Amino acid sequence: NAGVTQTPKFQVLKTGQSMTLQCAQDMNHEYMSWYRQDPGMGLRLIHYSVGAGITDQGEVPNGYNVSRSTTEDFPLRLLSAAPSQTSVYFCASRGGQGAGGRAYNEQFFGPGTRLTVL
Amino acid sequence: AQSVTQPDIHITVSEGASLELRCNYSYGATPYLFWYVQSPGQGLQLLLKYFSGDTLVQGIKGFEAEFKRSQSSFNLRKPSVHWSDAAEYFCAVGARSYQLTFGKGTKLSVIP
Fold it and tell me: Does the CB of A96 have a partner CB in chain B at under 8 Å?
């Protein structure tokens, strides 16, 4: 298993450009999430998905779009990048409820994408 | 709304000394509680988690944490710190583990 993979690892954009951060997992996990990490702020939830075709907003969703057409992939789209979106982005996934109800509640994080918007 | 406070931004300890990292949370019921560690330039690794049951939980790398409901705390401890433990540590809370609220982190430096 590759676990959670993210591409690219680094990206520099100009203000107003668009791009998609890719996230994929090969663990057949139902739940996937996007976080951003800024210095001194910890991680903040952007969007999450509880299954294919189902997404919802987290704490800081403005400026980002997501979709979940397959179980494996959960891309994050920046339609018009702004300097305030300079950050490190982490994708995470989690399995569903297993035997005993909470057997698969651990989230697995990808290695992150470092995005700079000039 | 749920929230997490890690009061210590930066802690420095000598190698071999004991360690306690503080975490206080705000949540209406018993939440899921996690401690993650992040080495520079790396992703997050789960150290331990608490869902229910025994309030003292053991994790990887010799870490443990104690859930104290009366104090709304979930402090991380290690009896003897190694130089390789130098990293940033994050406490997280949530009703669902895919909707976590993270603290701002505590950076641990270890003096040889």
Answer: no
